[in-house]
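Protocol step 4 of 5: obtain the predicted structure for the target chain.
Materials: sequence only (see below). No template structures provided, no constraints applied. The aim of this step is simply to have a reference model before the mutagenesis design in step 5. Sequence pasted as it appears in the construct record:
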Amino acid sequence: MVSAKNIGVAVGVALTGYLVLFFLAPDSALIFAAGLLLGGLLNRPLSKAKPLPTVGDTGEMATLFIGNVAYKASEQEIRAAFEKFGEVLAVRLVIDKRSGRPRGYGFVEMAASGAERAIAELNDTEFAGRTLKVNVANERKPRS
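Step 4 output (structure tokens):
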């Protein structure tokens, strides 16, 4: 959708580009300005990002903490294990910033409808040679 704000920004950028290029390369200045103008009008505004997809029967999502993860385990293997219980939206294994190695824990975002079953079935079970710890993740504390 084209809004007045988008039109104003697109026209302003196109005119600025035209004026700058007019003195450098008059032949291509008009083509450049037209391209900027059309691009600015046809693009969706960046501030209107797509909402995250909802998952599960009720559309609710749960974040699970997974601890004691084998260092050799991949995100795809974790995803496959949790997808047996419901739709998995994301898997994040935490990596040490300094060494670049896995830290042995991570998070799984999945449909709330399957989260309870995943906790019951996967907590204290062996996965890739280690005993997994699976719980509902705590809310992140704000940094001060």
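Step 4 remarks: The chain has two domains: 4-42, 61-136. The beta strands are 61-67, 88-95, 102-111, 126-127, 130-131, 133-136.
Proceed to step 5.
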